Amino acid sequence: MTANRQTLGRRAASFLRDWSLPRQLRGEDHRSDAARSTLSERLRPRLEHADHVGVSVCPYCAVGCSVLVYAEDGRITHVEGNPESPINAGTLCPKGATLFSLMSNPDRLTKVKYRAPHSDRWEERPLDWAMERIAQLVKRTRDETFVEALPDGTKVNHTLGIASLGGATLDNEENYLIKKLFGGGLGMVFIENQARVCHANSVPSLAASFGRGAATMPQWDLANSDCILIMGSNMAEAHPIAFRFVMEAKRKGATVMHVDPRFTRTSALADIHAPIRAGTDIAFLGGIIRYILEHDLMFRDYVLPYTNIATIIEGDFKDAAALDGLFSGWNPDKNSYDFDSWQYEGVVVPSALAEHYLDTAESFSELTGRLHERPPPQDPTLEHPNCVYQILKRHYAPYTPEMVERVTGCPQETFLKVAEALTRNCGRERTGAICYAVGWNHHSIGVQMIRAAAIVQALLGNIGRPGGGILALRGHCSIQGSTDIPTLYNMLPSYLPQPNAFKPQARDFDSFLDDETIPTGWWYNFPKYMTSLLRAWYGGAAGPHNGWGYHWLPKIVGDHSQLALTLAMDDRMIRGLFLLGQNVVMGGSNSKLIQRGLGKLDWLVVRDTDMVESATFWQKGHAVRDGEIRPEEIGTEIFVMPAELAGEKEGSFTNTHRLVQWHDKVVDGPGDSRSELWFLYHLGRRLKALYADSTAERDAPIRNLTFDYRTKGPRDDVEAEDVLREINGYTFPGRRQLKNLAEIAADGSTACGSWLYCGCFPEESHNQTRMREADGPDGPGTHRGWAFSWPDNRRVLYNRASADPEGRPWSERKRLVWWDEAKGAWQSHDGIDFEPDKRPDYRPDWSKKPEGMDALRGDEPFIMMPDGRGALFTASGLKDGPLPAHYEPVESPVHNPMYRQQTSPVAKRWRRPGNPLHPVADPRHPHVLTTYRLTEHHCGGTPTRGVPHTAELQPEGFAEIPPELAEELGIRQLDWIVLATARGEIETRAMITRRLRPFRIDGHTVHQIGLPWHFGWEGYATGDIANVLTAVVGDGNTSMHENKALTCALRKGRLTRSLARRPERDGRRGEPWTSS
Amino acid sequence: MDQQLTPYTTEAERTAGVRIEPGKRYGFFTDTTVCIGCKACEVACKEWNQLPAEDMSLTGMSYDNTGALSATTWRHVAFIEQVRPAQDHERDDGVPDRWLMMSDVCKHCANAPCLDACPTGAIFRTEFDTVVVQQDICNGCGYCVPACPFGVVAIDDCDGKAHKCTLCYDRLKGGLEPACAKVCPTDSIRFGELSELDAVARERVEELKAQGVEEAYLYGTPDAPGATGGLGRLNAFFLLVDRPEVYNLPSAPTRPSQRIGAALGAGLVAFAGLAAAAVTLLAGTRNGGGR
Prior knowledge:
The structure holds two protein chains of two kinds.
Chain A: H1 2-18, H2 20-25, H3 38-42, E1 52-57, E2 66-72, E3 75-81, H4 99-103, E4 112-115, E5 123-125, H5 127-145, E6 146-149, E7 155-165, H6 172-185, E8 188-192, H7 202-210, E9 227-231, H8 235-238, H9 240-251, E10 255-260, H10 265-269, E11 272-275, H11 281-294, H12 300-306, E12 330-331, E13 336-337, H13 364-367, H14 388-396, H15 401-408, H16 412-424, E14 432-436, H17 446-459, E15 469-472, H18 481-484, E16 491-492, E17 496-497, H19 509-516, H20 526-538, H21 562-570, E18 576-580, H22 584-587, H23 591-598, E19 603-608, H24 613-620, H25 622-625, E20 637-642, E21 651-654, E22 659-663, H26 676-691, H27 700-704, E23 711-712, E24 717-718, H28 720-728, E25 730-731, E26 750-751, E27 788-789, E28 817-820, E29 825-828, E30 908-909, E31 927-932, H29 942-945, H30 948-951, E32 958-961, H31 963-969, E33 976-980, E34 985-992, E35 999-1001, E36 1004-1006, E37 1008-1012, E38 1033-1034, E39 1046-1052
Parallel strand pairs in A: 7-8, 7-18, 9-10, 9-14, 10-11, 14-15, 18-19, 19-20, 31-37, 32-34
Antiparallel strand pairs in A: 1-2, 2-3, 4-5, 4-20, 6-7, 12-13, 16-17, 21-22, 22-27, 23-24, 25-26, 28-29, 30-38, 31-39, 33-34, 33-39, 35-36
Helix pairs in contact in A: 5-26, 6-26, 6-28, 7-17, 11-15, 11-16, 11-17, 15-16, 21-23
Chain B: H1 11-15, E1 26-31, H2 40-49, E2 75-82, E3 98-105, H3 113-117, E4 123-125, E5 131-133, H4 144-147, E6 154-155, E7 162-163, H5 169-173, H6 179-183, E8 189-193, H7 194-210, E9 217-219, E10 236-240, H8 260-290
């Protein structure tokens, strides 16, 4: 009673004290804080309750934003941007800003969901049961489908029966174990990830031009640009945080230009928007190249010494202007080019690409020997009729402003503005950058689009210099990492080629090395990297006695890329599939064909954080929806396993500019969620146990695979740093960490999982990827103390080119690397992408047949190229020509106005039932269709569509159509419309906007329709799947699909659906999510 | 709490270059010319303030599926497409198309009408010169809702109380920049002391004019459009390049109390008129009836 009275009294007193009225009566202004309440008094930010905060990396796009993850009692309480990051400086895009909701989403998977063959329901199963079942299935399928040798005796040691998709959303360490266990251990060759359908084109085009298939500059360096061309990218929407640096440059006076079929949020912020018809980028860029040459605007002092502009090409070479769209060497019988006439006069030049040998059985080593003997023939006067300069002039002569307008639909005045701005901002004092993304990838001619940009930048002297370069903007958090440490079929880590069974030289290790080793330039080190990789994978079991275990590596026998993989499922070649964070039903071309293929598998393992379309295709897929098949008729055994996100696991991502950033583990993932590292390690241990007693030679790879990583914690999580230590490399058998590339040896004394990453873990206890010391505002701005970027922590690639041939910076304003005569060494705030003490006046002594780097001069900055020079003209490496030429997309509304050759002669077309293509100017499919992303969602969209805060921003699928077309068809805003191709039909909402405009092309009107491809049937923001419309066609070099430019039909209304044949049973219909 | 966690208590110094101290006046400067319409501000606000998502349907209004500020949406990005018809584009006449984007928010008015209207003292002015609805006091009377000339304050259906942007009152107390300003990729939303923001904003207008953007002006700074009708100034102010109405902002907002005289006068005149009419009519009737 007393206590109560006291409490009451206290409450009354506190009321009188706090109540605003007496305070105001006392004279406090009601506009002051006189009215402050108890709650307001005590208010503090909830971050102060956190008992743990870790640094993670946003798991969405490849910009690589650093985030702080706050947790309390093992639960995440908040996530926001890390102010220390030189990339995002605390900011985030709407996707990154909802990481808290993503990670703590109650809809996340927490248990293994199992669907037995022909079942109509999901059941929850214990994790351990699923792991053992999967291990058994893998072994059974592998044993049933393993091939040791082809009928002619060629060893292949592979299985085509199991495939794996995914890796771009995963850690480098996880990618490494996928490739190591699935490829090096089990012999799988169908190993692919999102990089194939995202930026596969960047690798050959940039590598064939400059030596490495990656962005040449860091994102933050855009702030130093005087001119930025964004083309093939909707940067402000798809990479908003990278766009910060564009805005910073613009504030400093840079001209920002956007060339794009649509007027987007990027166009809105650009100084110039040049509209073009989808798929005509080469015509536009070819026009720029012609403009530079015609008006003699190239940076001559740079181009002459640093590129192959003066190099003389074989006399019988003919360009596409001469042969109406084809180059010399076209072989109609083989449907491919012979490359002889493309070579330097008297010298065969291999490409810096891993895949340079594909499609040829000839040995390069015999042909390239002359590289040792003398420098490639050159004419510095540029007058020789077959020097690259003269060839460029002839080849691009037809690309006049009039022709640019005729092909692209862009008014020539606008085109000329872009050309003038680019050429105004080059030379000693000024630099310009080009940013591109999948808009130059999703084409049958995408490799050559990027090549055209490379030519423009080389001519303008914009490579290797501050504010200059080509920035490939990639779409997944570690898509660069999953390309470097490739979960891709045709490469081994760090761009070593996966051996091809049809190449005689690949039959044994010595001839493989001999054939792949380029005599001059950095790739001369090839044997060191290859041997050290085999040492890392097979440890002591590999040695000179068995060719370092080379024959344990599976050999490829053709195109095992994602498109081919999806068809191989449909053909029942593939029996089991892993989907490791890749939602192929959303992201793969011709989704109905893919869904059909998934339904023919024996088993399917889906690892993701949420239910994805690829897991529920048997319930809600198009074939079921359309009544073609009942779920009970689908025999696929399906495991859906909950996965962990960055912040719940530790590891490293490699961002779009090769920056390898470590993310900490802050909390455990919910329930039975596990990392891919955990999954792969424990699956690998189980498989090794299953094969332990085998004596068969075919099982030697999995038996001998080194797989001893430490585990920790109650869940036996794998020590991710152990995997990164192996990726970095160590001495063998001493296991001392390698400090840098120079320590890698060819004699088996070193093991190295991915040579380009050497230096990321240079000491047992020094993880450079976890270093987080950015340069302050007054620092040099290379941020070498923030994480690691390959190679050797260099930030700007080819940065030797930022100095003139004598080693002086081109200008003080654009200073980056310079030669210090007193020290006898190159100096820079960046890592030097050159031999550190090679004098600028060094010249090879050709009488001594110099090898490797000795054959490159002190003023040849492109060290990965056999001649040390940037390639305006690519003699080898690309299958569709040494120079970009405009071809129409495989499906086009017009005949090619430029050449008689309509499409890329080597474009891949998989003609088969279920994948029909539209003819040129097909009246049934008259409109151009282009697919794309929105800021608010990420790719296949399940994460953002499943998070309410991002879902509500773009809550439903729609197609953007120009008002002229809408009026013609009587379509009003938000009406239902049906888009149709020969592959399928989808229904969606009409978004009528002038931001899409019709073009007049060769006298008739071409309408473009825009379709975001995020939407599917899972999550809160739903819609029909755009990829139902797209076709399985691909770039001849990379098998990249062509989803940026195809043709379609449009009508008002909705789809009429056949009633599913599924009988009504116990009311479960429409409740497909009932689990046991 | 771990010692190493403390740096964030001065985080705003790193993210906004501002030391947050009670007694100083803070606000937002939203430069719409660098807004990329990403809506990170909308979601960062919802994530921090734990506000629910709302309607999941397309509006058909460009990329704006939020529609308006509400009790559970405290930042709203407006999209205004100004693209000319296709026939005007056949030749390049140098007139650029525009797609204006603006992140709208509570203006935290210097003389806040909502605060004036609040009968319970729930709405108060904080030590940072921001205007906050105190949830432990608010009784949901709703007087503040019509008082706001910008349509910012709203009553939530669930708890029946008034809600709006708090300018992240809790974060300011902890030395953190408000969530929307911190997250903004292009610094379109800038947080800071008003005196500094005013200077930055004026400089930005001059910079834009020098670049040929003659139409740039400030909305909400003292004596500028938006800061009319007795509002004094708007602590959250904007740089615009078109008329305020284009962004759905009132061109001359006023405090309701400013309108008392006029409203009362109008009411009295109307009353007098009605009375006169009634007298006339009734007199006529009576006259007629008298006959």
